[in-house]
Request: fold
Amino acid sequence: MNNKLSEFANQYYSVFRNRSLNLDSNDELPIGEFDRYTLGVSFSGIDEHYLNKAKEALSDIEEYGHGNDIFEKLDSMDLLKSNPKLISLFILKELQSHEFFHLLQTLLLPSCYSLYKASREMASLKVMIFGLYLKTGSKFSLNKELSIFEYLDSVSDDDIRGYLERFFDMYRYNTNIVDNFFSYSEKDTRVNMIDLMEGSAYFFQKLSNRTMSIDTFTPKKDSPYLVAHDHFTKCGGKENLLFVVLCHLALKYGILDDGDFMEIMPTPQDIFESLCNQVDRYNDYLSDIPFSFSLFGSYSPLEKLEKWGFSTEDRDHCLEKEMVGMSDEELYATGKIMGLCNIIEADVQKHFENARVKFKKSRIEPDETRASSIITKIRNDHAAFESYLFLSLLLANNTFSSTMLSGYLPKIKDVEYKGLFSENTNTLMDDNLFRLVDDIDSLLVNGVANCCQEHGSIPYRKLIACENKAGLNQRVENLVGIGLRGIFE
Reply:
């Protein structure tokens, strides 16, 4: 067996084992997960009983005459005091906000996109080996306990094997990229990139739903949700909003690679720690709130920003249509956050200059078809997507945030694009293919695989006996035209 393949497989499973982007705190609450190689968002633990509780709570508040927008018009804590059943709805809203914020992070922040791209490429290699190995007429063996990756060495067709080996040579160091995201830390602290990504998503879910004082999810001590935030507060950080912005800018400009440049280029955690050392300046900026907004009631939203002293660049990024119906408080907060982002970006630039590294504005140029299709769609629909206005509106405007995270993103993430074999595909078909190959790989490596909701993970002899349409046996037959028996020796 090719030693490079075995070494790669061992590192791959070591890196990916128990490393997911999910929100959970105890066994009693639902959990959400963001899939870092399909961009899929999923939830579990939301059974019919839980949904009925949420529906009952929602029906109880119809007396207010607002419907769902009651969450945008009334104080969250006041709502909960008058109707404690609403806690189930707040939990669902936070879950959705958290996971779809991960999607936005991946589409906006280069280090998060690098994690996705590296993970996607490795998963794609697995899918390609699976498909092309079967195309040659070969079969897998349950007795060898080899992963799909290791079957590359057994592809009988020289042209196909050469094609796959070229991809293997390109992707083999991606395991280092993923490992660095979860494990790499600077000398002075133990903060790493997963702490920045998960920590900012956790505090974003609380801020965007106005549930900071409501006990929903309680992260465990030393969890990725709190590590970076603990460092932030030890440095004197006061506002959770500031923490989210610092993480956002750090993940936007810090580098993540397989290790070639991370020793000389600023990493996200390096930038974050540098910014935390200047946190008093940012605290002062955020504390400067005008005494009254009523003096500016007759002006348009853009005129108000001008009166409040926001820069021409900030105002140029503002789209009047995005600000219709916003209160003066929300409008001022939006401009204030945009100004904060510009101040912090200037400090990031100084950090690069001090490190004698060239600084340039950050923008993802997606070279992967799935992400490219989604990013192109959002760019067309929201001209401000990659400006600081977008992040500011998510944090300051509950209506915008709720519409984006609960309505827009769940719909537009399902796009059509060219698949791995140049076929026309979409996110649903793609997800099913990647999950199926993962299940087959699990069967090869672990002797069990996920079958269906009824059976869970079961061994081969039970898999082939399952007649459910969602069972692995039927899924394999739908994809390759034969059941499990047809692809194993």
About this structure: The first strand starts at residue 21 and ends at 23. The beta strands are 21-23, 31-34, 41-44, 416-418, 424-426, 448-450, 457-459. The chain has a mean pLDDT of 85. The first helix runs from residue 3 to 16.
